[in-house]
TrEMBL record:
Keywords assigned by UniProt, alphabetized: Calcium, Disulfide bond, Heme, Hydrogen peroxide, Iron, Metal-binding, Oxidoreductase, Peroxidase, Pyrrolidone carboxylic acid, Secreted, Signal
InterPro entries: Haem_peroxidase, Haem_peroxidase_sf, Peroxidase_pln, Peroxidases_AS, Peroxidases_heam-ligand_BS, Secretory_peroxidase
Position of the signal peptide: 1-30
Cofactor(s) listed in the protein's UniProt record: heme b; Ca(2+)
Binding sites annotated in the UniProt record for Ca(2+) 1: 73, 76, 78, 80, 82, 94
Origin species: Oryza glaberrima (African rice)
Name of this chain's protein: Peroxidase
Length: 330
C-alpha cells in the first residue's frame, strides 16, 4: 500500500513539473506576437528591411552570414542576440568560441547597421531588441535572395550574458549522422522535418575547406559524394589550402534561396556530411525527394520551422533587457 501511495505522489510531482514547464513555455510564446512594436516603433520592419537591403547590395555574402548567425544564436542560449556580444575583459563571449569563429563578419555587421538605423528614428531608440532585429534581418535576407517572406513574431529581450563555454555541445558538427541531428534539434523543440527544412539554409552561404576536407581526401572519397563534385572540391581546396578559403555551399544556384539544396543532395552534392546524410539515410530521404520536387512545399515547411526556431529560449521579464549596443552587455 505504501509503495502505491509513494508512486502516486511521485507521479503527481512529475505532473506538476511538466505543468510548470508547459506554463513557462506558454509565457515565452505569449510574449511573442506580430506588430509587437506598433505602439513605440511602428515602422521598425521597414527600417530593418531597408538596412538589410543596403547591406546585401554591398555584398551578397550577407544573406548566408545572417541566416547562419540567427541559427547559432538561437541554438546556444536561445534567440537573445548573445552571439553578437563581443568579448570583454576576462570574459570570452560566444562569438569567440572555436565553433563560431567561422561566422562571417557580414552577419554581425547587418545587425549593427540595422540597430543603428532603428535607433536613428525618434521614438525607436533603445526600444527594439537586438534579438528581434536579428530575427527580422534574417527573414529579410532570405526574402531578398528569393526565398519565402513571412511574418516574424517579435517581443524577444536581449540576453544578459554571453560566454564561450555555453556553446559547448549546442551546435551540430558537420559530421553528425541523422540520429544525432534529430536528437539535437529535438532538444530545442524541433522535429526531424524542421531539422531538414532548416538544413536547407545551406542553399546560401559558404563553408571553409576544413569542414569537409575529410570527405574529399585520403585513399578514397566519401562514397555518398558525386565523384565529379569531389574532384571540383579537390581543385578548390587542395592540401595545405589557406584556412581562410571557403566555397559556396550550393554550387548550382549559390545566390538564390531555393530548393536546389535538396536536388543537390539527390545528386550527391551535399557539401557537408551532415547535409548528404539527409539523403543517404533512407529514413529522411522521402522528405528530401518531396521538397526537391516542390518548392512550395519546402517554403511552407521552412517558414514553419523558422517560426518555431524563433521561439527557442525567448527571454522574458528580468531574464533580459534591450541592449543599447548589440555588441555590448548593458
Amino acid at each position: 500500500m505504501m509503495v502505491v501511495v509513494m508512486r502516486r505522489r511521485m507521479a503527481a510531482a512529475a505532473m506538476l513539473v511538466l505543468v510548470a514547464m508547459a506554463g513557462g513555455a506558454t509565457v515565452c510564446a505569449a510574449q511573442l506576437r506580430r506588430n509587437y512594436y506598433a505602439g513605440v516603433c511602428p515602422n521598425v520592419e521597414s527600417i530593418v528591411r531597408g538596412a538589410v537591403a543596403r547591406k546585401v547590395q554591398e555584398t551578397f555574402a550577407t544573406v548566408g552570414a545572417t541566416v547562419r548567425l540567427f541559427f547559432h544564436d538561437c541554438f546556444v542560449d536561445g534567440c537573445d542576440a548573445s552571439v553578437v556580444v563581443a568579448s570583454a575583459g576576462n570574459n570570452t563571449a560566444e562569438k569567440d568560441h572555436p565553433n563560431n569563429l567561422s561566422l562571417a563578419g557580414d552577419g554581425f555587421d547587418t545587425v549593427i547597421k540595422a540597430k543603428a538605423a532603428v535607433d536613428a528614428v525618434p521614438g525607436c531608440r533603445d526600444r527594439v531588441s537586438c534579438a528581434d532585429i536579428l530575427a527580422m534581418a534574417t527573414r529579410d535576407a532570405i526574402a531578398l535572395a528569393g526565398g519565402p517572406s513571412y511574418a516574424v513574431e517579435l517581443g524577444r529581450l536581449d540576453g544578459l550574458r554571453s560566454t564561450a563555454s555555453s556553446v559547448n555541445g549546442r551546435l551540430p558538427p558537420p559530421t553528425f549522422n541523422l540520429d544525432q541531428l534529430t536528437a539535437l534539434f529535438a532538444a530545442n523543440g524541433l522535429s526531424q522535418a524542421d531539422m531538414i527544412a532548416l538544413s536547407a539554409g545551406h542553399t546560401v552561404g559558404f563553408a571553409h575547406c576544413n569542414t569537409f576536407a575529410g570527405r574529399i581526401r585520403g585513399s578514397s572519397v566519401d562514397p555518398t559524394m558525386s565523384p565529379r563534385y569531389a574532384a571540383q572540391l579537390q581543385r578548390s581546396c587542395p592540401p595545405n589550402v589557406d584556412p581562410r578559403i571557403a566555397v559556396t555551399m550550393d554550387p548550382v544556384t549559390p545566390r538564390a534561396f531555393d530548393n536546389q539544396y535538396f536536388k543537390n543532395l539527390q545528386n550527391g552534392m551535399g557539401l557537408l556530411g551532415s547535409d548528404q546524410v539527409l539523403y543517404s539515410d533512407p529514413r529522411s530521404r522521402p522528405i528530401v525527394d518531396s521538397w526537391a520536387q516542390s518548392s512550395a512545399a519546402f517554403n511552407q515547411a521552412f517558414v514553419t520551422a523558422m517560426t518555431k526556431l524563433g521561439r527557442v529560449g525567448v527571454k522574458t521579464g528580468s531574464q533580459g533587457n534591450i541592449r543599447r549596443n548589440c555588441a555590448v552587455l548593458n
